[in-house]
Every structure is written in C-alpha cells, then in structure tokens.
Specification:
5-stranded mixed sheet; alpha+beta; 16 helices
Amino acid sequence: MALVTKAVKGTKDVLPKDVYKNQYIEATALDIAEKFGYKEIRTPSFEHTELFQRGVGDTTDVVQKEMYTFDDKGGRSITLRPEGTAGVVRSYLENGLCNETLPQKICYIDSCFRYEKPQAGRLREFHQFGVECLGTASPLADAELIALGTSILDTLQVKDLSLEINSIGCPTCRAEYHKALKEYFLSRKDKLCQTCRERLDRNPMRILDCKSPVCSEIAKDAPVVIDYLCDECKEHFEKVQEYLKAMNIEYTVNPKIVRGLDYYTKTVFEFISKSIGAQGTVCAGGRYDGLVDELGGQKTPSLGFAMGIERLILLMETQNAPFPDENVPDLFVVALGDKATLKAVEIVKDMRAEGFTALLDLNQRSVRAQMKYADKLNAKFNIVIGDNEVETGVAKLKNMTTGEETEIALETFVSGFYNISLSEQLADLEINGEEFDFASLFGVNEE
C-alpha cells in the first residue's frame, strides 16, 4: 500500500535515533545563556503579517519572497514566523516586560518558516536558538552578546570559525550612506535585477544583500558603510572592539556585512565556517535600536542573535565534533509468565522512581525474542525472571558489556542494583588507571 503523503519539500523528520543531537545543542545553549542572565520565552509560531512587514522590513527578501502568508477563516492575514526577534519584541511590549528592570535578557528555541530553495543546512522549516537583550545602548552589551555566542560554539567544540563584525551606523549616518549607494547603483541601474531596481529608491542597502550573481558582482565595488559612520557610531564600534580584545575574542572587520533584515543598526556580526559550503553562517546578529519603537513602543536600544540548529548539526557532523553518547536503558527486565511479569512491573516502577531507565517487553514475547530486543536497545544490564526466580526471590543480573552475572535479591532490587553497578564502575576506573573523585560522587564537601 502506497503512502498517503510524504513530508512537505523543505521539511525534515528528526528521528528518535538522531534527536539527542538537537537536544544536546539546545540544552547547551540554554544552559550557557542562563549563566549570562537570559531567561527563556515561548512565542506563537504565527503572527499578524503586519508585524513582520514592519519589523523585518518590506524591502527584504524575507518579506518579499520567503514568508508563508495566508488569510485565516476570519479574513486576517497571518504569517508563519520567519525569524524570532519580531515576535519577542511584540511580546515584550504586549506583556509589559518593557516596564520591568532593563535590560530584559530573553532567549528562545523557535521553529521558523521561509520559502527558500532547500539545500544542505537550509530548510523551509528550520529551528533556531536565539537571544534578545532589550534596553541597553552600551557597546559592552554588544561585546557580551558576541561573547555568549562564542561560549556556546566553543562549548560545542565547533572548530575553524571566523568572527566577522561591522557597523552599519544609525539613521543619521545611514542617510548619507544611502545617498552614496544610490548614486553608485543609479549608474548601473540597467544591469540590476527588477527587485533591486525597486529597492533603489526605498532602501539601496538591500541591494548589497541580493542573491542574484549579477547584482552581487556589481555590489562588490559599492561604497562601504563604515566610511560614512558619524562620530557617535564610530566611537561605539571602537568600544565594541576594545571589549572584544579585552575578552580575547578574535575577530575581523568585514565592511560588506549588512545582514538581511531591515531592523539592524550599528553593530552586526557573523560566525562563519568554510566547512559546509555556501551556507557557512552558523550564528549571526547585531543591534536593532529602532525596532521597539517601530512596533509601537518607546525607543529602546536592543540587540540579539540567532544560530541555526540544523546548520550547527551539519557543521559538527562534518567536523566530527563530539556529541554525547545517546542515552541507553540502565536495565531491561526479561519476564516469563504472569507472576514474573507482575514482579517485573514492580521492579521497573521502583527503578524509575529512583531515576533509572528501566524497560520490559510490552509484547511479552519469548525469552529469546526479549533478549534480542534488549540487545537492540543496548541496555547496560538485564535480568531474567521466571517462576523459579519469583519463588526463590533471587535472580541473576547480567552486565551486557562484560557478560558478568551477579546474584541479586528481588525484594531489595534497586539498592542491590545500585551497589553492583557502582562497584563495576569503580572497577573499570581502577583498571583504566583513572583518578576517581569520591567527593563528587557522594556530594561530599571537602574542606
């Protein structure tokens, strides 16, 4: 029988055997962000279309070409979230976080949706870890944000990344830059794509981000924004660099970085890898001092970044970066007969209550079939319980790695399991010549 349907193009199932990689990256990012003072937020996966038109910018490729937009049954225009920042700012204003102590430090893990050509590291539904810091104009915040991204990527042991930074100025110096850009592109207007011709009057900076090979080639010799910075923006950018140097964070200034969203101001940055081809940007962000007031709030200088989880996994796999071992069951109980099954149910309940992963065969197959099942699950230990074990109250616990068997009392199974597994761990450490930290194991405070 044929499948009714397949996954939509540009989407991807994350199977149980692989999902631990996503969980590892997400847990690492959330843990480090918390150490920097960030708290998690969860916003809806769709918003009113106007939010993204005003927030992201209606001259961007995201708004013009990539959004999933539809009318709901009430006739309202709704858009699936193409990025995380606009929704966070909307929530920040709507829920009064703007009235609390600033800066507000917020992080999130979001699914996002963009209609793009699917390729390695780029899907139409993708996932991001992002942070937003709302309510600070200090260049120290810019440097700390970059330090947060650096810390996450270093902890994940991603190698050979380059950090590139730029300043795209404020509305004051941007106006002068726009004049220079417009003059440059006007003399080449006939060669620009139709979209970029339309951008020429409204936002010539967007031409710099055009994916057309012809427009990209023309843009190579365009004026650079860093040459047009006002004194305040120039000083801000210099301070950011001072702080990065104080943190021993290596970077290069790339005056061509403008980012693909209209809300950015001043500092922008990208962490780039050459290991995964064209989709080499794994983390990017910057400052957006005008977004909050654009969406109806008071002027609130802010900044943030996002990193693509699928792209990070691709990069880590390409570089053979270490992922933690997939979790495997601590115990599999093989039960034969009704009495044995009742005892097995009791044992796995007690084991789970003490924090162990304990499983039994829900299909109640033969002993041989259950043993094969336990092997496929890579259980660390198994135990076979039949009528004789129930009657005597004793069974044999088998270490599935070494094959060693140890008798264990069923009535005190959990404590017995703990002692046996612990003694085997200690023996392994002794054999391998590793130094064992007893204080850490038992929670002893050495003073």
